[in-house]
Design a protein that fits this description.
This protein is an alpha+beta fold. It has two domains: 139 residues, Phosphorylase Kinase, domain 1 (2-Layer Sandwich); 149 residues, ATP-grasp fold, B domain (D-amino Acid Aminotransferase, Chain A, domain 1, 2-Layer Sandwich), CATH 3.30.470.20. The chain is built from nine helices and 15 strands. The longest helix is centred in the middle third of the chain and has 24 residues. The mean pLDDT is 94.
């Protein structure tokens, strides 16, 4: 496990953004900065920004390196299940991928009754709802209970600053947001990805609780098929619990041990923030603890030692891109 001195060194120089105007058309997401290349490829730089409640909250040291490398790992581990957009990873923060047209939905798969956000299945269940995104839920469940089956619960893709909304697949189709055929395909792909993720995590003593996937369509020149894009099974897009302590903590009414960004969400909720209004500034202690959890997730899932690259990110990323002809 990485030492605190390394995390503290990274704390002072987070990768908040990079400037690469020579690459062409730019799009900035909540966490990833993207450049569309003229040849049909895309450069994605994963920053250290952290988002929750559909807001950018600040930065977590080394988070971008963890997310980019963990996504590359999962793209490799799931390529035989669902095709993806990744071509190469020339730098710890950088992915080179095929340019895709994103589908206008986020595909969320849930297997436990949990969550703290307004779009979570537990929030809906706790207020008395027994149907969530078109799925009937039984009475008598407690928070953090397993659901009878993993369910696909799509959400709208809100612009930055707005909130995603959980809806049923039927409503998305009826509203013309996505075709029935595409919705059926991405639901099948999402469940297959989730099953592979749960199986691999279980071998490492982890429970993959829920996750979010994004899908896009490849250009016609590359077949026009639907592939998974963005990220897969990272602490930003997924919730992980420790299997060895889940049963005991659940039976005693404690929250499961986790190392996803739920730690940051819970800290914000304790400060009275649930998505609206002024964002409480993350303390250095919270940022460092979050970094430890991200790194622990990477090492436990992959079985590899995380090695931090503390070189100045702007120059490092430019050199890495130049080395692959960009």
């Amino acid at each position: 496990m990485i030492d605190d001195a390394t995390i503290r060194a990274a704390l002072d120089h987070p990768l908040e953004s990079v400037s690469l105007p020579r690459l062409g058309k730019f799009y900035g997401g909540k966490v990833r900065d993207n450049w569309s290349l003229p040849d049909g490829r895309r450069v994605l730089v994963t920053s250290d920004r952290i988002s929750a409640f559909d807001r950018v909250l600040g930065t977590i040291p080394l988070k971008g390196q963890v997310l980019s490398q963990l996504s590359a790992f999962w793209f490799e581990q799931t390529a035989d299940v669902v095709p993806n957009h990744l071509i190469a990873s020339p730098d710890p923060n950088v992915a080179l991928a095929w340019e895709c047209v994103p589908l206008p939905v986020e595909v969320v798969v849930r297997s436990y009754l949990t969550g703290v956000t307004s779009t979570s299945v537990w929030t809906a269940y706790g207020r008395g709802d027994r149907t969530f995104c078109g799925h009937a839920l039984p009475d008598g469940l407690r928070k953090n209970d397993p659901l009878p089956l993993a369910i696909v619960t799509p959400s709208t893709k809100a612009p930055k600053g707005d909130h995603d909304v959980s809806v049923s697949a039927a409503k998305l189709i009826a509203d013309g947001v996505i075709s029935a055929a595409d919705m059926a395909q991405v639901s099948e792909m999402a469940l297959a990805l989730f099953a592979r993720g749960q199986a691999l995590c279980a071998r490492h003593g982890l429970i993959l609780v829920d996750t979010k996937y994004e899908f896009g369509r490849l250009p016609a020149a590359r077949g026009g098929g639907i592939v998974v894009i963005d990220e897969v099974h990272t602490p930003d897009s997924s919730r992980f619990w420790f299997a060895e302590s889940y049963a005991e903590r659940h039976s005693s009414g404690e929250e499961p041990e986790s190392f996803d960004k739920e730690y940051v969400r819970r800290w914000l909720v304790a400060q009275g923030f649930t998505g609206d209004g002024k964002i409480p500034p993350l303390t250095d202690e919270v940022r460092m603890e979050a970094a430890r959890r991200y790194i622990a997730a990477y090492e436990r899932i992959t079985g590899r030692t995380f090695v931090a690259d503390l070189r100045p990110p702007q120059a490092r990323i430019e050199a890495a891109l130049a080395a692959v002809g960009l």
